[in-house]
Predict the structure.
Amino acid sequence: MNSNSLDEAPSDNCPTTNASSSDGPDESENVVRVVPIEDTKANEPYEGRVTRSRSKRLAQLTDPESTMIACEVDMKEALSGPDKAAWFDAMRDEVKSLVNNDTWTVVEKPHSAKLIGCRTVLRNKYNPDGTICRRKARLVAQGFSQIPGIDYFETFAPVARLDSLRTLAALASQHKLKIFQFDVVTAYLHGEVDTTLHMQIPKMLPEILESIIATENDQVTVDKAKIMLDDLKKNNKSACKLNKALYGLRQAGRRWYEKINGVLKQLGLRPTSCDSCLYTDSRDKLTFMLLYVDDILLVSRNIARVAEIKKGLAASFDLKDMGLAKYCLGIEIEQSNSSVSLCQSGFIKEILARFDMLDCKPVSTPLATGLKLERCKDLTPKSFPYRELIGALMYLSVGTRPDITHAVSYLSQFNSCHDNTHWTAAKHVLRYLKGTSNMKLVYSRDEKGLKGFADADWG
Protein backbone atom coordinates (compact mmCIF):
# COMPACT_ATOMS: atom_id res chain seq x y z
CA MET A 1 0.00 0.00 0.00
CA ASN A 2 1.38 3.39 -0.98
CA SER A 3 1.11 5.76 1.96
CA ASN A 4 1.65 8.78 -0.28
CA SER A 5 -1.55 8.43 -2.24
CA LEU A 6 -5.10 9.55 -1.71
CA ASP A 7 -6.36 6.80 -3.99
CA GLU A 8 -6.59 4.45 -1.00
CA ALA A 9 -9.15 5.60 1.52
CA PRO A 10 -8.90 4.47 5.13
CA SER A 11 -10.69 1.24 5.90
CA ASP A 12 -14.07 1.22 7.55
CA ASN A 13 -12.97 -1.76 9.63
CA CYS A 14 -11.68 0.34 12.49
CA PRO A 15 -10.84 -1.40 15.79
CA THR A 16 -13.40 -0.80 18.50
CA THR A 17 -13.21 -1.04 22.23
CA ASN A 18 -14.53 -4.17 23.85
CA ALA A 19 -18.11 -3.83 25.00
CA SER A 20 -18.88 -4.21 28.63
CA SER A 21 -20.49 -7.44 29.72
CA SER A 22 -23.22 -5.56 31.52
CA ASP A 23 -26.35 -4.14 29.91
CA GLY A 24 -25.00 -0.62 30.34
CA PRO A 25 -21.63 -0.11 28.59
CA ASP A 26 -18.94 1.85 30.39
CA GLU A 27 -18.96 5.38 28.96
CA SER A 28 -15.22 5.67 29.62
CA GLU A 29 -14.61 3.02 26.96
CA ASN A 30 -16.82 4.63 24.30
CA VAL A 31 -13.98 5.61 21.97
CA VAL A 32 -12.98 4.15 18.62
CA ARG A 33 -9.34 4.90 17.79
CA VAL A 34 -8.05 5.01 14.25
CA VAL A 35 -4.42 5.13 13.10
CA PRO A 36 -3.90 8.34 11.07
CA ILE A 37 -2.10 8.44 7.74
CA GLU A 38 1.14 10.30 7.36
CA ASP A 39 1.35 12.09 4.06
CA THR A 40 -0.53 12.68 0.82
CA LYS A 41 0.18 13.36 -2.79
CA ALA A 42 -2.09 15.15 -5.25
CA ASN A 43 -3.44 13.02 -8.08
CA GLU A 44 -4.63 13.92 -11.52
CA PRO A 45 -8.45 14.25 -11.58
CA TYR A 46 -10.59 11.59 -13.14
CA GLU A 47 -13.49 13.61 -14.51
CA GLY A 48 -15.55 10.64 -15.63
CA ARG A 49 -15.83 9.12 -12.20
CA VAL A 50 -19.23 7.71 -11.22
CA THR A 51 -19.99 7.62 -7.51
CA ARG A 52 -21.64 4.68 -5.84
CA SER A 53 -25.42 4.54 -5.86
CA ARG A 54 -25.22 4.02 -2.09
CA SER A 55 -23.84 7.54 -1.72
CA LYS A 56 -26.91 8.95 -3.43
CA ARG A 57 -29.22 7.06 -1.09
CA LEU A 58 -27.29 8.12 1.99
CA ALA A 59 -27.34 11.74 0.84
CA GLN A 60 -31.12 11.74 1.28
CA LEU A 61 -30.79 11.00 5.00
CA THR A 62 -29.43 14.47 5.76
CA ASP A 63 -30.32 17.92 4.57
CA PRO A 64 -27.72 18.73 1.86
CA GLU A 65 -28.03 22.46 2.11
CA SER A 66 -27.39 22.67 5.82
CA THR A 67 -25.56 20.88 8.59
CA MET A 68 -28.66 20.93 10.77
CA ILE A 69 -31.30 18.24 11.02
CA ALA A 70 -34.38 19.31 9.04
CA CYS A 71 -38.06 18.50 9.57
CA GLU A 72 -40.65 19.34 6.90
CA VAL A 73 -43.78 21.25 7.90
CA ASP A 74 -47.17 21.31 6.18
CA MET A 75 -47.58 24.68 4.44
CA LYS A 76 -51.31 25.08 5.12
CA GLU A 77 -50.80 24.28 8.79
CA ALA A 78 -47.81 26.63 9.08
CA LEU A 79 -49.57 29.63 7.52
CA SER A 80 -52.63 29.23 9.74
CA GLY A 81 -50.79 28.50 12.99
CA PRO A 82 -49.28 30.73 15.68
CA ASP A 83 -45.96 31.00 13.81
CA LYS A 84 -47.47 32.14 10.52
CA ALA A 85 -45.58 35.44 10.60
CA ALA A 86 -42.24 33.64 10.96
CA TRP A 87 -43.10 31.28 8.11
CA PHE A 88 -44.15 34.18 5.86
CA ASP A 89 -40.84 35.90 6.63
CA ALA A 90 -39.04 32.71 5.60
CA MET A 91 -40.98 32.62 2.32
CA ARG A 92 -40.17 36.28 1.72
CA ASP A 93 -36.46 35.63 2.28
CA GLU A 94 -36.59 32.78 -0.23
CA VAL A 95 -38.33 34.85 -2.90
CA LYS A 96 -35.92 37.72 -2.25
CA SER A 97 -32.96 35.44 -3.00
CA LEU A 98 -34.70 34.19 -6.14
CA VAL A 99 -35.30 37.76 -7.29
CA ASN A 100 -31.71 38.83 -6.58
CA ASN A 101 -30.34 35.86 -8.52
CA ASP A 102 -32.57 36.58 -11.55
CA THR A 103 -33.83 33.02 -11.29
CA TRP A 104 -36.62 33.56 -13.81
CA THR A 105 -38.22 36.09 -16.10
CA VAL A 106 -42.01 36.48 -16.19
CA VAL A 107 -43.11 35.99 -19.81
CA GLU A 108 -46.17 35.11 -21.83
CA LYS A 109 -46.69 31.38 -21.92
CA PRO A 110 -45.62 29.92 -25.28
CA HIS A 111 -48.49 28.07 -26.97
CA SER A 112 -46.54 24.80 -27.26
CA ALA A 113 -44.84 24.94 -23.86
CA LYS A 114 -45.72 22.56 -21.04
CA LEU A 115 -45.32 24.36 -17.75
CA ILE A 116 -43.34 22.75 -14.95
CA GLY A 117 -45.12 22.86 -11.61
CA CYS A 118 -43.61 24.18 -8.38
CA ARG A 119 -44.24 24.14 -4.64
CA THR A 120 -42.83 25.74 -1.51
CA VAL A 121 -41.30 23.40 1.06
CA LEU A 122 -41.25 24.65 4.66
CA ARG A 123 -38.85 23.24 7.21
CA ASN A 124 -37.90 23.72 10.81
CA LYS A 125 -34.12 23.69 11.16
CA TYR A 126 -32.77 22.23 14.40
CA ASN A 127 -29.52 22.62 16.28
CA PRO A 128 -27.59 19.51 17.40
CA ASP A 129 -29.27 19.77 20.84
CA GLY A 130 -32.73 19.54 19.26
CA THR A 131 -33.79 23.19 19.63
CA ILE A 132 -35.25 25.04 16.65
CA CYS A 133 -32.63 27.21 15.00
CA ARG A 134 -34.69 28.90 12.29
CA ARG A 135 -37.56 28.56 9.84
CA LYS A 136 -36.65 27.78 6.26
CA ALA A 137 -38.67 28.00 3.04
CA ARG A 138 -37.50 26.55 -0.25
CA LEU A 139 -39.26 26.96 -3.61
CA VAL A 140 -38.71 23.83 -5.68
CA ALA A 141 -39.62 22.93 -9.23
CA GLN A 142 -41.51 19.69 -9.85
CA GLY A 143 -38.84 18.18 -12.02
CA PHE A 144 -40.65 14.85 -12.32
CA SER A 145 -42.65 16.39 -15.19
CA GLN A 146 -39.52 17.14 -17.23
CA ILE A 147 -39.04 15.15 -20.43
CA PRO A 148 -35.60 13.56 -20.92
CA GLY A 149 -33.82 14.59 -24.09
CA ILE A 150 -35.92 17.75 -24.34
CA ASP A 151 -36.01 19.44 -20.93
CA TYR A 152 -32.73 17.96 -19.67
CA PHE A 153 -29.82 15.79 -20.76
CA GLU A 154 -27.16 15.08 -18.10
CA THR A 155 -28.19 14.80 -14.45
CA PHE A 156 -25.30 13.14 -12.61
CA ALA A 157 -23.55 15.18 -9.92
CA PRO A 158 -21.08 13.68 -7.42
CA VAL A 159 -21.07 14.25 -3.67
CA ALA A 160 -18.24 13.72 -1.22
CA ARG A 161 -17.73 10.29 0.26
CA LEU A 162 -17.81 9.97 4.03
CA ASP A 163 -14.51 8.10 4.01
CA SER A 164 -13.00 11.21 2.42
CA LEU A 165 -14.16 13.18 5.46
CA ARG A 166 -12.49 10.65 7.74
CA THR A 167 -9.32 10.84 5.64
CA LEU A 168 -9.20 14.61 6.06
CA ALA A 169 -9.76 14.26 9.81
CA ALA A 170 -6.76 11.91 9.99
CA LEU A 171 -4.64 14.28 7.89
CA ALA A 172 -5.66 17.25 10.03
CA SER A 173 -4.60 15.44 13.18
CA GLN A 174 -1.34 14.13 11.73
CA HIS A 175 -0.15 17.45 10.28
CA LYS A 176 -1.78 19.85 12.79
CA LEU A 177 -4.17 21.27 10.21
CA LYS A 178 -7.36 23.18 10.95
CA ILE A 179 -10.75 22.30 9.44
CA PHE A 180 -12.73 25.36 8.35
CA GLN A 181 -16.35 25.28 7.21
CA PHE A 182 -18.18 27.39 4.62
CA ASP A 183 -21.70 27.32 3.24
CA VAL A 184 -22.84 28.62 -0.15
CA VAL A 185 -26.19 30.37 0.15
CA THR A 186 -28.79 29.31 -2.48
CA ALA A 187 -26.12 27.26 -4.22
CA TYR A 188 -28.20 25.80 -7.05
CA LEU A 189 -29.28 29.25 -8.19
CA HIS A 190 -25.73 29.92 -9.37
CA GLY A 191 -26.03 27.24 -12.05
CA GLU A 192 -27.59 28.28 -15.36
CA VAL A 193 -30.10 26.05 -17.11
CA ASP A 194 -28.98 24.43 -20.36
CA THR A 195 -32.45 24.09 -21.93
CA THR A 196 -35.51 26.30 -22.38
CA LEU A 197 -37.84 25.73 -19.42
CA HIS A 198 -41.09 27.42 -18.40
CA MET A 199 -42.58 27.10 -14.92
CA GLN A 200 -45.93 27.96 -13.37
CA ILE A 201 -46.25 31.16 -11.35
CA PRO A 202 -45.57 30.25 -7.68
CA LYS A 203 -48.47 30.58 -5.25
CA MET A 204 -48.57 33.78 -3.19
CA LEU A 205 -45.85 35.34 -5.36
CA PRO A 206 -47.67 38.72 -5.80
CA GLU A 207 -48.30 39.06 -2.05
CA ILE A 208 -44.69 38.21 -1.22
CA LEU A 209 -43.35 40.65 -3.83
CA GLU A 210 -45.52 43.42 -2.36
CA SER A 211 -44.10 42.65 1.09
CA ILE A 212 -40.54 42.81 -0.27
CA ILE A 213 -41.23 46.18 -1.88
CA ALA A 214 -42.67 47.53 1.38
CA THR A 215 -39.98 46.24 3.76
CA GLU A 216 -36.71 45.82 1.84
CA ASN A 217 -33.99 48.45 2.22
CA ASP A 218 -31.88 47.39 -0.75
CA GLN A 219 -33.06 49.48 -3.69
CA VAL A 220 -31.77 47.02 -6.31
CA THR A 221 -33.92 44.26 -4.83
CA VAL A 222 -36.93 46.58 -4.62
CA ASP A 223 -36.56 47.59 -8.28
CA LYS A 224 -36.34 43.96 -9.41
CA ALA A 225 -39.40 43.05 -7.32
CA LYS A 226 -41.38 45.96 -8.82
CA ILE A 227 -40.54 44.87 -12.37
CA MET A 228 -41.60 41.29 -11.64
CA LEU A 229 -44.82 42.43 -9.96
CA ASP A 230 -45.69 44.69 -12.90
CA ASP A 231 -45.12 41.80 -15.31
CA LEU A 232 -47.39 39.57 -13.23
CA LYS A 233 -50.21 42.12 -13.38
CA LYS A 234 -50.21 42.02 -17.16
CA ASN A 235 -52.80 39.56 -18.41
CA ASN A 236 -50.58 38.12 -21.12
CA LYS A 237 -47.76 37.28 -18.71
CA SER A 238 -48.47 33.86 -17.31
CA ALA A 239 -45.27 31.83 -16.95
CA CYS A 240 -41.77 31.94 -15.49
CA LYS A 241 -38.97 31.35 -17.98
CA LEU A 242 -36.19 29.84 -15.89
CA ASN A 243 -32.73 31.36 -16.15
CA LYS A 244 -31.14 29.44 -13.27
CA ALA A 245 -31.25 25.80 -12.21
CA LEU A 246 -33.98 26.01 -9.58
CA TYR A 247 -34.07 23.37 -6.86
CA GLY A 248 -35.99 20.30 -8.03
CA LEU A 249 -34.95 20.40 -11.67
CA ARG A 250 -33.42 17.16 -12.88
CA GLN A 251 -30.22 18.89 -14.01
CA ALA A 252 -29.95 21.33 -11.07
CA GLY A 253 -27.36 19.35 -9.11
CA ARG A 254 -25.14 18.83 -12.13
CA ARG A 255 -25.31 22.48 -13.22
CA TRP A 256 -24.26 23.58 -9.70
CA TYR A 257 -21.39 21.10 -9.54
CA GLU A 258 -20.08 22.18 -12.95
CA LYS A 259 -20.25 25.81 -11.84
CA ILE A 260 -18.36 25.44 -8.55
CA ASN A 261 -15.94 22.89 -9.99
CA GLY A 262 -14.89 25.48 -12.58
CA VAL A 263 -14.42 28.15 -9.91
CA LEU A 264 -12.33 25.83 -7.72
CA LYS A 265 -10.06 24.95 -10.64
CA GLN A 266 -9.45 28.64 -11.27
CA LEU A 267 -8.37 28.92 -7.62
CA GLY A 268 -5.80 26.16 -8.10
CA LEU A 269 -7.79 23.28 -6.59
CA ARG A 270 -8.01 19.95 -8.41
CA PRO A 271 -10.34 16.96 -7.76
CA THR A 272 -8.65 13.70 -6.82
CA SER A 273 -9.12 10.44 -8.68
CA CYS A 274 -10.52 8.72 -5.57
CA ASP A 275 -13.28 11.29 -5.00
CA SER A 276 -14.43 13.98 -7.44
CA CYS A 277 -15.46 16.17 -4.49
CA LEU A 278 -12.15 15.89 -2.64
CA TYR A 279 -9.76 18.58 -3.87
CA THR A 280 -6.02 19.04 -3.46
CA ASP A 281 -4.27 22.39 -3.81
CA SER A 282 -1.65 22.85 -6.52
CA ARG A 283 -0.15 25.76 -4.55
CA ASP A 284 0.03 24.13 -1.11
CA LYS A 285 0.38 20.36 -0.70
CA LEU A 286 -1.19 20.47 2.78
CA THR A 287 -4.37 22.29 1.77
CA PHE A 288 -7.45 20.21 0.95
CA MET A 289 -11.12 20.85 0.29
CA LEU A 290 -14.18 18.62 0.61
CA LEU A 291 -17.40 19.57 -1.20
CA TYR A 292 -20.81 18.14 -0.32
CA VAL A 293 -23.32 20.01 -2.50
CA ASP A 294 -23.07 23.48 -0.89
CA ASP A 295 -21.20 22.51 2.29
CA ILE A 296 -17.46 23.15 2.06
CA LEU A 297 -14.75 21.92 4.41
CA LEU A 298 -11.35 23.55 3.88
CA VAL A 299 -8.43 21.84 5.63
CA SER A 300 -5.14 23.73 5.95
CA ARG A 301 -2.66 25.35 8.31
CA ASN A 302 -1.79 28.07 5.79
CA ILE A 303 -4.02 30.92 6.96
CA ALA A 304 -3.02 33.13 4.05
CA ARG A 305 -4.03 30.44 1.56
CA VAL A 306 -7.33 29.90 3.37
CA ALA A 307 -8.06 33.63 3.12
CA GLU A 308 -7.16 33.60 -0.58
CA ILE A 309 -9.51 30.71 -1.35
CA LYS A 310 -12.27 32.27 0.73
CA LYS A 311 -11.91 35.55 -1.15
CA GLY A 312 -12.07 33.75 -4.49
CA LEU A 313 -15.22 31.86 -3.52
CA ALA A 314 -16.88 34.98 -2.11
CA ALA A 315 -16.26 36.76 -5.41
CA SER A 316 -18.39 34.17 -7.23
CA PHE A 317 -20.94 33.10 -4.60
CA ASP A 318 -22.78 34.34 -1.54
CA LEU A 319 -20.51 32.61 0.98
CA LYS A 320 -21.19 32.09 4.68
CA ASP A 321 -18.04 31.69 6.81
CA MET A 322 -18.82 29.33 9.68
CA GLY A 323 -15.33 29.34 11.21
CA LEU A 324 -13.81 26.13 12.52
CA ALA A 325 -15.95 23.14 11.58
CA LYS A 326 -18.06 21.84 14.45
CA TYR A 327 -21.05 20.11 12.83
CA CYS A 328 -21.36 18.90 9.25
CA LEU A 329 -23.69 16.34 7.62
CA GLY A 330 -24.98 15.19 10.98
CA ILE A 331 -21.42 14.61 12.23
CA GLU A 332 -20.00 16.52 15.19
CA ILE A 333 -16.36 17.53 14.69
CA GLU A 334 -14.09 18.25 17.67
CA GLN A 335 -10.64 19.69 17.02
CA SER A 336 -7.76 19.98 19.48
CA ASN A 337 -4.00 20.38 19.22
CA SER A 338 -3.46 16.63 19.49
CA SER A 339 -6.49 15.01 17.83
CA VAL A 340 -9.62 15.30 15.72
CA SER A 341 -12.73 13.36 16.71
CA LEU A 342 -15.95 12.60 14.83
CA CYS A 343 -19.22 11.74 16.57
CA GLN A 344 -22.90 11.39 15.64
CA SER A 345 -24.54 11.57 19.05
CA GLY A 346 -27.05 14.16 17.83
CA PHE A 347 -28.08 12.00 14.89
CA ILE A 348 -28.42 8.98 17.19
CA LYS A 349 -30.69 10.98 19.50
CA GLU A 350 -32.79 11.99 16.50
CA ILE A 351 -33.33 8.43 15.26
CA LEU A 352 -34.04 7.20 18.79
CA ALA A 353 -36.78 9.80 19.02
CA ARG A 354 -38.06 8.99 15.52
CA PHE A 355 -38.53 5.32 16.39
CA ASP A 356 -39.80 5.96 19.94
CA MET A 357 -36.74 4.43 21.63
CA LEU A 358 -35.52 7.34 23.76
CA ASP A 359 -36.44 5.54 26.98
CA CYS A 360 -35.20 2.09 25.97
CA LYS A 361 -32.85 0.02 28.15
CA PRO A 362 -29.27 -0.04 26.78
CA VAL A 363 -27.53 -3.29 25.88
CA SER A 364 -23.83 -4.05 25.41
CA THR A 365 -23.81 -5.57 21.90
CA PRO A 366 -25.38 -4.53 18.56
CA LEU A 367 -26.97 -7.97 18.06
CA ALA A 368 -28.19 -10.51 20.58
CA THR A 369 -25.80 -13.39 21.21
CA GLY A 370 -26.47 -16.38 18.93
CA LEU A 371 -29.07 -14.51 16.87
CA LYS A 372 -30.11 -16.36 13.71
CA LEU A 373 -32.80 -14.84 11.51
CA GLU A 374 -34.72 -16.45 8.67
CA ARG A 375 -36.45 -14.96 5.66
CA CYS A 376 -40.11 -14.24 6.26
CA LYS A 377 -42.33 -16.06 3.77
CA ASP A 378 -45.20 -13.63 4.26
CA LEU A 379 -44.33 -10.77 1.88
CA THR A 380 -47.36 -8.61 2.65
CA PRO A 381 -46.47 -5.01 3.64
CA LYS A 382 -45.74 -4.56 7.34
CA SER A 383 -46.86 -1.69 9.56
CA PHE A 384 -43.43 -1.01 11.07
CA PRO A 385 -40.80 1.11 9.20
CA TYR A 386 -38.09 -1.56 9.05
CA ARG A 387 -36.33 -0.33 5.92
CA GLU A 388 -36.41 3.27 7.14
CA LEU A 389 -34.62 2.21 10.31
CA ILE A 390 -32.04 0.16 8.40
CA GLY A 391 -31.33 3.17 6.17
CA ALA A 392 -30.69 5.41 9.17
CA LEU A 393 -28.45 2.78 10.77
CA MET A 394 -26.57 2.39 7.50
CA TYR A 395 -25.76 6.11 7.47
CA LEU A 396 -24.35 5.75 10.97
CA SER A 397 -22.30 2.67 10.10
CA VAL A 398 -20.58 4.26 7.10
CA GLY A 399 -20.12 7.54 8.97
CA THR A 400 -18.60 7.16 12.41
CA ARG A 401 -19.89 3.85 13.79
CA PRO A 402 -18.06 0.90 12.20
CA ASP A 403 -18.94 -1.15 15.29
CA ILE A 404 -22.50 -1.64 14.00
CA THR A 405 -21.50 -2.41 10.39
CA HIS A 406 -21.88 -6.18 10.71
CA ALA A 407 -25.26 -5.87 12.41
CA VAL A 408 -26.58 -3.46 9.78
CA SER A 409 -25.24 -5.60 6.93
CA TYR A 410 -26.91 -8.69 8.37
CA LEU A 411 -30.25 -7.01 9.04
CA SER A 412 -30.33 -5.37 5.60
CA GLN A 413 -30.51 -8.84 4.04
CA PHE A 414 -34.14 -8.96 5.19
CA ASN A 415 -35.36 -5.62 3.82
CA SER A 416 -37.96 -7.32 1.63
CA CYS A 417 -38.74 -10.33 3.84
CA HIS A 418 -38.97 -9.21 7.45
CA ASP A 419 -41.39 -9.68 10.33
CA ASN A 420 -41.58 -8.77 14.03
CA THR A 421 -38.52 -10.89 14.78
CA HIS A 422 -36.37 -8.80 12.45
CA TRP A 423 -37.94 -5.59 13.75
CA THR A 424 -37.03 -6.55 17.32
CA ALA A 425 -33.46 -7.31 16.22
CA ALA A 426 -33.21 -3.90 14.52
CA LYS A 427 -34.46 -2.17 17.67
CA HIS A 428 -31.79 -4.09 19.57
CA VAL A 429 -29.22 -2.06 17.61
CA LEU A 430 -30.97 1.11 18.78
CA ARG A 431 -30.70 -0.10 22.37
CA TYR A 432 -26.96 -0.57 21.84
CA LEU A 433 -26.70 2.94 20.38
CA LYS A 434 -28.63 4.33 23.35
CA GLY A 435 -25.81 3.25 25.66
CA THR A 436 -22.97 4.21 23.32
CA SER A 437 -24.30 7.42 21.76
CA ASN A 438 -21.15 9.34 22.73
CA MET A 439 -18.76 6.88 21.11
CA LYS A 440 -16.33 8.69 18.79
CA LEU A 441 -13.80 8.15 16.08
CA VAL A 442 -10.63 9.71 17.47
CA TYR A 443 -7.74 10.47 15.13
CA SER A 444 -4.54 11.05 17.10
CA ARG A 445 -1.19 12.15 15.79
CA ASP A 446 1.26 9.26 15.27
CA GLU A 447 4.93 10.22 15.01
CA LYS A 448 5.80 6.81 13.58
CA GLY A 449 3.58 7.24 10.54
CA LEU A 450 1.87 4.58 8.45
CA LYS A 451 3.81 1.58 7.10
CA GLY A 452 2.73 -0.86 4.41
CA PHE A 453 3.86 -4.48 4.05
CA ALA A 454 3.67 -6.97 1.18
CA ASP A 455 4.18 -10.73 1.08
CA ALA A 456 6.96 -11.42 -1.44
CA ASP A 457 5.74 -15.00 -1.86
CA TRP A 458 2.70 -13.62 -3.67
CA GLY A 459 4.67 -11.11 -5.76
About this structure: The chain has twelve helices and 17 strands. Residues 27-39+340-444 form one domain. Residues 1-70 have pLDDT under 50 and may be disordered.
